[in-house]
Amino acid sequence: MLTHVLAAATLASGLFLGALTSAGPAWAHAARIAGDPADNAELAQSPPRVSATFNEEMQPEFAAMTVVGPDGGQWGQGTPTVDGAVISVGVRGGAPSGTYTVNYRATSADGHVVTGSWSYRVTTAATGTAAPVPSPGAAPEPPAAPSSSSGGLPAWPFAVAAVAVVAAGAVWAVRRRS
Predict the structure, then answer these.
(1) Which of 118, 151, 157, 166 could disulfide-link 39, Cβ–Cβ 3.0 to 4.6 Å?
(2) What is residue 164's three-state secondary structure?
(3) Tens digits of per-residue pLDDT, 105-142?
(4) Which GO MF terms are attached to this record (predicted)?
């Protein structure tokens, strides 16, 4: 009997140590590797288009990109386009000088949502400055915090599953004794 217990303990510890030492690298999520214009760039005039380049291809479905001007208005024009690893959107003409924030949200090839933002500055207002397109809602939303990924899977489904397994085990143990 003791030999069976020792054999089982040895096998379990061997499997545990093997799992720890042979674990491969974690799968990395897509990350923005460049922006056009670059982060914190100073431009004499507004660019006709802004783009974000990622380290892997992005899915064209559900891609979103906005350009929020110094006045809080939406200066992006048209629907964002996805070309491989690049997401871009046009910028309306007549933009005032100031800091612009580009916000993006897209899905990488592996299905993970990637969000983030970066800013650039326009030093000269366009002649005949146009009025911005108001952002949806009564007040403009503050720009999203810079981030390169969503952080992976949420933890709450695993916690719910663990509670369900423990509860099912407790019910089974109580019924077995009866």
Answers:
(1) 118
(2) helix
(3) 999 888 889 999 999 999 998 765 444 545 454 444 44
(4) copper ion binding
pLDDT at 169: 83
The 10 Å CB-count burial string (b at 16+, else e) for 96-132 is: bbeebbbbbbbbbeeebebbbbbbbebeeeeeeeeeb
> By residue range, what is the domain housing residue 106?
25-178
Q: What CATH code is carried by the domain that includes residue 146? A: 2.60.40.1220
- The pLDDT tens digits for 2-47 are 454 444 444 444 444 444 444 444 456 789 999 999 999 999 999 9
* Total of domains in the chain: 1
pLDDT of residue 4: 47
Of 11, 41, 16, 29, give the one whose Cα is nearest residue 110: 29
In a domain, 98, yes or no: yes
- Residue 14 domain flag: no
Q: Say how far apart CA 87 and CA 105 lie, in whole Å.
A: 10
- Residue 89 and residue 175: Cα distance in Å, rounded? 61
**Cα radius of gyration (the chain):** 26
What is the reported pLDDT for 3? 52
